[in-house]
Amino acid sequence: MASRTETDEEAALEAIATLQNCSGEQKKAQEEIDTLLLDENPFANINELFPLYDTLYFRGLLLRDRVEVSWSSRLTLCAGICELLKDNAGKYRRIRVKLSEPLLKYRTREDTVNTFLHELMHAYFFVTTSFKHSREDGGHGPGFLLLANSINNHGSYFITVFHTFHDEVDSYRTHVWQCNGSCKDRPPFFGLVKRSMNRPPSKSDFWWTRHEAECGGEYTKIAEPKPTKAQIASLSAKERAGRQKNKINAWLTPAADAGPVDAGTEASRRPVRKRAADEQTELTPKRATVECPICNARVAETSINDHLDNEHSS
Ligand SMILES: [Zn+2]
Ligand SMILES: [Zn+2]
Ligand SMILES: [Zn+2]
User: How far is the CA of 81 from the centre of ligand 1 (A)?
Assistant: First the structure.
């Protein structure tokens, strides 16, 4: 086992090194994760995924140090947290990852998995740095970015430095349905269901029955994605030329006000884990500001975590 007092960056490099040449155990974990994420079940079983991710990405150190994972019905400020609790000796050495049931229950499994991996990374850094895990940059310093990038590349995940959902994530889900019931006035989703697949809300969603009981409204489709490659191919040459110009403009304009791209935003550009049916989704350009999920104010993307800490932490 490696030393217990690494820096975030050293810990990230140690984890990344294991991915260059995966062990048999890692490969087996990878296969099991793929199987779990292949079916159509929208629910992510974090207890099943936890030991597999621990083996694949975190050197088995999370289970060794008894990191706990659970769902919370009271956590509403962010989608997930990694908290330190007092152990039997009264020291803050118990690590617990909690995911927000209220914020994630209407989201896709990809969101849950990406949030889960983000929080497991914090747990991994607490374990490997003897709890010195950098609090600078909100714990999302160079070591965090390094590992996030590697895991994103390795498994086509979409781990960002954010603890909340925002336009960046939403921009991948371009099929949108609006509920006409009471939930349309309630944060954080205001009755919106956004998906990368053209799969309308239905009985196959695990939250369907609950929504029927609590809201009872009906969903109407209000937005569609851009045309697929096949659809574009069938356009006339003239239509295609016009489209191409719009696309180029769309990419140029936001980039101009977005400023330089740092490692963090690069990490957050990775595509979400995709299934075959999602392939038609095109990435949309990144935006410089995001909407605060609590007060709905427009906030610079780079300062959303500060905003949440300063304005909304209790
Ligand atoms: Zn974080
Ligand atoms: Zn509703
Ligand atoms: Zn706010």
Answer: 7
